[in-house]
Design a protein that fits this description.
- The chain is built from 6 helices and 2 strands.
- By secondary structure, it is mainly alpha-helical.
- The protein folds into 2 domains: about 50 residues, no CATH class; about 60 residues, no CATH class.
- It has a two-stranded antiparallel sheet.
- Helix 1 crosses helix 2.
- It is elongated.
Length: about 120
């Protein structure tokens, strides 16, 4: 439905095939519009599971699961196990989580990283 996901996956595939992990390229033209972390994650998962459309979305889906797990442990640590369960349930059933996991955006991975830092702080 959206060509942006295909572009992101193709850049990661080019990184994996060419071995150039520094410069993102699309059709042999440097693509410097976005930071490379997204392409690195997708390329690593392409290397592990093969090049498929669902693999390109796998880092974001795993980030969503990890975010719910972190919310559970944060609530359990700060209040109680029941509060942790409710926090994890609230995160995992949030409509925004489902709306942004099927599109290749790293906002969720950034949120997961910030949650992890706050938890270990």
């Amino acid at each position: 439905m959206d060509d942006v996901d295909g572009v992101q996956a193709q850049i990661a595939r080019t990184m994996l095939e060419s071995g150039d992990w520094v410069t993102a390229r699309l059709n042999k033209i440097a693509y410097m519009e976005k930071p490379p972390m997204k392409y690195w994650l997708i390329a690593v998962f392409f290397g592990i599971f093969g090049v498929h459309d669902w693999v390109a979305r796998l880092p974001i889906a795993l980030g969503a699961a990890l975010l719910a797990w972190i919310a559970f442990h944060f609530g359990k640590w700060s209040l109680s196990e029941r509060a942790g369960f409710q926090a994890g349930l609230a995160i995992s059933t949030c409509i925004g989580l489902f709306l942004f996991t099927w599109v290749i955006k790293l906002d969720l991975v950034l949120l997961c990283s910030l949650g992890t830092v706050l938890f270990f702080l």
